[in-house]
Amino acid sequence: MSDKGLTGRCLCGEVEVHATQAEEQVGVCHCDMCRKWSGGPFYSAHCGVAVTFKGEDAITRFSSSPWADRGFCHRCGTHLFYLYKESGEYFVPAGLFDGDNFSMGTEIFVDEKGPYYELHPTSRKMTGAEVMAAFQQGGDDEK
């Protein structure tokens, strides 16, 4: 990513997100919750904690699990982030960013993948059990 980071906006333009530490690889989550939230797999850029928002009054947060919040623009419905509560790390939908230039990284919860699409042929793949084991051992795999 550029030295200045990435900027993106929701559909209506009310919320702007700026991430200065976005990773260059997209993580993909196929878990039931992400598929319900996004209508398919969740393609995200791991942005760490260095994320700022303009238009915070338009952001609604939903506590989707004991460990994570999901944010969206309550005016247009655009998904804005998945946030680990404990670490404060943001995973932002890759398509939200302007001029994004990502490559495919890891796909997680591949055992929960929907039957209506295919996995990427060269990505690293992890089942839900593998993700949870890595998470419990302090791993840094995406969700």
Write the layout of secondary structure elements.
Elements: E1 6-9, E2 16-19, E3 25-29, H1 32-38, E4 42-48, E5 51-54, E6 59-65, E7 68-73, E8 79-84, E9 90-93, E10 103-108, E11 124-126, H2 128-136
Parallel strand pairs: 3-10, 10-11
Antiparallel strand pairs: 1-2, 2-5, 3-4, 4-9, 6-7, 7-8, 8-9
Properties at a glance:
mainly beta; eight-stranded mixed β-sheet; 2 helices
Descriptive report:
There is one protein chain. This protein is mostly beta strands. It has one domain: Metal Binding Protein, Guanine Nucleotide Exchange Factor, Chain A, CATH 2.170.150. It contains two helices and eleven strands; from the N terminus they run E-E-E-H-E-E-E-E-E-E-E-E-H. Strands 6-7-8-9-4-3-10-11 form an eight-stranded mixed beta sheet. The chain has a three-stranded antiparallel beta sheet with strand order 1-2-5, with no helix packed on it. It is globular and about 35 Å long. The two termini are 20 Å apart. The mean pLDDT is 91.
> Roughly how many Å is the radius of gyration?
14 Å
Named at the architecture level, the CATH assignment is: Beta Complex
Quote the CATH topology: Metal Binding Protein, Guanine Nucleotide Exchange Factor, Chain A
**Protein structure class:** mainly beta
User: Uncertain runs with pLDDT below 50, 5 residues or more?
Assistant: none
Helix fraction bin: 10-25%
Number of domains: 1
Largest sheet: 8 strands, mixed
Please write the string of helix (H) and strand (E) elements.
Answer: EEEHEEEEEEEEH
Strand fraction equals 35-45%
Distance between the termini: 20 Å
Molecular shape: globular
| Annotation field: number of helices | 2
CATH class: Mainly Beta
Q: How would you state the average pLDDT, rounded?
A: 91
**Total beta strand runs:** 11
Q: Give the strand line-up of the largest sheet.
A: 6-7-8-9-4-3-10-11
